[in-house]
Amino acid sequence: MQNTTKNKKQHLPFFILTVALFVLIFGYQLLTKGLFGDSIFYSAMAQNLSNGIGTPWHLTNSGHPILGEFYGHPPLAIWLLSYFIDFVQEAFWAERLFSLLNLSLILWGISKIWKLTHSEAPPWSTWWVWLCWLIIPLNIWSFQQYMLENTMTIFVVWSIYFGLLASQQQKYGLGTVLMGLFLFLATFSKGPVGLFPLVFFMLYWLIFRRISFSKGVLFSSLVLSTLLLSYVFLFFGAPESLNYFEQYYQRQLITSLSGGSTESTLNERLSIVEWLFLEPLALWIMAIFSLSLYAFKKEYLPYQSEHKKWSLLFLLLGLAGTLPIMISAKQGRFYMVPALPFIALAIAHLTQPILSQLLQQYGTAQGLKRISYSGYFLLLTGLILLCFRYGKYSRDQVILEDIELLTSKMERREQVLVRTRNTAYSAECYLVRVGGLSTSNSMWEKTAKEERANPTTYILLEKELSNKHFYQYQKDSSLNTQFLDLYTLKPHHQRLKRKYLKEKSKLE
């Protein structure tokens, strides 16, 4: 009992300090404006869905009835974000708070796995694996934005937790079913990249030999069967979902695997290996240092085989979640995010014996008190910065300031024509998310003749682009914008438009 109390006192100050670091790092960006291009793209779709523009199986980031339909990824993560945006009444910080809630569920899952695989873990010791996760720069960047991988990681982490429960308990049925359901949710969020936990039971058999090979195959089969049955029920229960996934297969999966959308070389496909080395570089250095100590000072730091086995299992699981990405022609660092919790767990297990030795030798009462005070100070600093940064711009300030000014001149859900360069495609999504507008970069009507008869009332044109083709419009010179100009349909053409719409309604 005394030893448990001592361990608790040793770890609690570090737990407080680690939580403070999370608040400081993620709170700094939480209430700011501006998102990464993919983030605002998904956010625009989610807001449109919450406003009744598009449907769950016909997502759109623009509001255009044809051109804006999206089939690039399975829709679950976008649905969840849509509900959350609606819940917080379209607050500008919705995406980052949603991402932070994702992170909280992931950290909870990591803690459950840590305690399940480290039976002698002292209270509050989960701070160490959290810190190992935090020092990977990609994790910080991803959860300061909103990426689909953030939501998928929740389901991946918890699927492994239920797999661990199934492997360590006699009643394996519930664990394997829950693991299969969570893998269904993972793939329903971002596709096949969420399938890598399927190798868990075979890795567990290979490393621990606590289950037989046949049982490993049985468990894996039960998980896969649950996953497949979930999709069967989905397709029968919601027939529209089948068309959605057919479009997803043709437009995204085939293109990604064949390299049709980008010119891919072997070097580009190997980028994931480079990122896997560079992003967790601090963890790899810690691992090399730890292995060196175990090799040369065995009598001083006896390495427990249990930690070694768990470290190897989680390392292989992390590699299973990253290396297969090489088969895709589309590469991105953030594709690795769902596998990084297992890299962190691997290094945390590897270094745990050294950490325990260091805490035993240097964890004095005075030193622990200083760490606690440092944690409280950082926590207070993080909360102050969170409030101070409210409404500041973290990126795209020029675009956002223009859009906030421009959209004040238009009604929400107004249809606008937007012309920007490809490098500024996120401007269209900001118009949807910030101004609640419906956007198109070509035309709204089905034919050019109908478009001329019924032109949009407003055009937003990037300043560097020519306006010579928009003779029906006049520039609003009262707005002092830096990136976009607002053009309004001239009064004469507005009268022609009203006349056309009146005649059209009579014919209908």
TrEMBL record:
GO molecular function: pentosyltransferase activity
Chief place of localization: membrane
GO cellular component: plasma membrane
UniProt cross-references to InterPro entries, sorted A to Z: LipidA_mod_glycosyltrf_83 (IPR050297)
Record's bilayer topology term: Multi-pass membrane protein
Transmembrane spans: 12-31, 66-85, 97-114, 126-143, 150-167, 179-205, 217-238, 275-296, 308-327, 339-359, 371-391
Stored PANTHER family: MANNOSYLTRANSFERASE YKCB-RELATED (PTHR33908), MEMBRANE PROTEIN (PTHR33908:SF11)
Name of protein: Uncharacterized protein
UniProt organism field: uncultured Aureispira sp
